[in-house]
Specification:
Two copies of one chain form a homodimer. With about 300 residues, chain A is α/β, with parallel strands linked by helices. Helix content of chain A is about 35%, strand content about 25%.
């Protein structure tokens, strides 16, 4: 990546997802500031529209190298950046960056296969290696990235090892928009007693699809007022943590992601008797983008 | 109940649900034939519209007594027929029928409470007592009614005892219309090897919300062609059966409901080492309506 572009003079990092994109200027001295936050997700960019968007960003913010992470590297994005197979190190990921234009890099996702076990991530890997680069997450240990599809990752020697996704966020979102629980799930979720009761249930019982119906039944029968949205969230996150802990090793869990979500997962982990550290996902993304850019000099 | 209406001279039985209704003429000699099958569910009937609908049915099919079951007795129906608390006998249910008009009876649902455990059914009770009246289901034993919200019922001395609902049907339907699994869940489900593989997983593992994501990941990674709709259905039904069997007692399970669904549940039960009998839900409904009508003479 030669030409006039020098990563050490600063670059633009873009987290380009399915429905949203955010971009930051990363200055030569490491300082960052957000330059873009809109709803132009990859699904909204027309065929051939990505070079236009890149040109628009450069016109406005200067001819900087650009690092793109997230679903822009999927088969629905600009150019597919094939998954790097776990165990995946930061060097392995950097080596597999795709370059659709000069000094425009697309970070690949990571895949995991073991017999019938199969999983994929795309976007979380930048945050994970960012947290790792700053010593915020362990080189060996269990890590969790809550979200639409929460990821539980076993870090092995500084590489992303086996990992597993849980559809917690998607299920909560879907249940709050469709079906019989809609009316019960409109309140804001918080880590209150009802959340904890749900998480305790989810951690201890393997009857999620039945207990979700109980929320409706208790309501119909007037069986105790309850913050049902928090209870349901606790139930799903409790089941999620139960699955994640069964999957991973011991020790504290590094939670990376949206602060509201890592707070809920930390609460459920506490009920499971596990310590957790919380790392802001945006911060981790920028640390990861810098760690990658350092390897591109 | 009195007047010119005599149940023994034949009556009309209506299964009036949220989105559909079906009605049958039950002749004095017990023979039945369907007279109505349309999408005028209770949510589509305007305020005050039920007497008009009843009059229309009688004008077309004669001044017969009418027995109404299903969501027409809910708080979104015509008149609420409050739940009868389990243990609920057929006599107890008949005694709680609501009469919005002369010789128009609405069958109540059944509720279950035990500490935090809570559940409700409305509509299934007619089928259950129909199967029981003909000796198709046991007076003591485990019974399952698959559907949008599958019900597992412990029958105790001929009464509906503790029961539990599992959101299997709603979840499968929702996942096939919203979210990342849509494309994978459009095929028709059948009790094939992939269904059995899903059911085996669901019976043996308590990681439903993770294994659902694996369907997507395996597809993205080209990890083995598979009838994903059947696998996902097997997974959900396997988890459902695991919950149901943990809830109920021993012995064969009486499956009552739509033949396509009872076939799938029978297959999953077989994998769990349990025998099952299958009873057609429509047949059971009419048997139940007759059993109720006999008590109204």
């Amino acid at each position: 990546m030669a030409g006039d572009f020098r990563w050490q003079d600063g670059f633009i990092a873009v987290d380009w997802g399915t429905t949203n994109r955010r971009a930051w200027m990363v200055e030569a001295d490491g300082r960052t500031h957000e330059i873009l936050d809109d709803e132009l997700g990859v699904l909204k960019v027309e065929n051939g529209g990505f070079p236009v968007e890149i040109a628009a960003i450069r016109k406005r913010h200067g001819d900087k190298p650009i690092l793109l992470g997230g679903m822009i590297g999927s088969n629905r994005g600009w150019i597919e950046a094939p998954y790097v197979a776990a165990p995946a190190s930061l060097d392995g990921i950097v080596a597999s960056i795709r370059w659709p234009e000069e000094a425009v890099g697309i970070v690949p996702g990571v895949s995991y296969r073991n017999g019938r076990d199969a999983d994929v991530m795309r976007g979380e890997e930048v945050q994970i290696f960012g947290a790792l680069a700053e010593g915020l997450a362990p080189r060996d240990g269990l890590l969790c990235h809550p979200g639409t599809h929460a990821k539980w990752v076993r870090m092995e020697g500084g590489a992303i090892g086996p990992f597993r996704s849980v559809m917690t966020g998607e299920l909560f979102s879907t249940l709050s928009r469709h079906g019989i629980l809609i009316d019960r799930l409109q309140d804001k979720v918080s880590a209150n007693d009802d959340f904890r009761a749900g998480a305790e249930h989810g951690l201890a019982h393997d009857d999620l699809t039945a207990e979700l119906f109980s929320i409706r039944a208790r309501y119909l029968l007037g069986a105790g007022e309850c913050d049902n949205a928090s209870y349901a969230s606790g139930l799903l996150i409790g089941a999620d943590v139960r699955i994640g802990l069964a999957f991973g090793g011991g020790g504290p869990v590094a939670l990376i992601g949206r602060p509201d979500l890592t707070a809920l997962y930390a609460e459920a982990l506490k009920l499971a008797g596990r310590d957790a550290s919380r790392i802001d996902g945006e911060h981790a993304f920028l640390l990861g983008a810098r760690a990658i850019a350092e390897r591109l000099r």
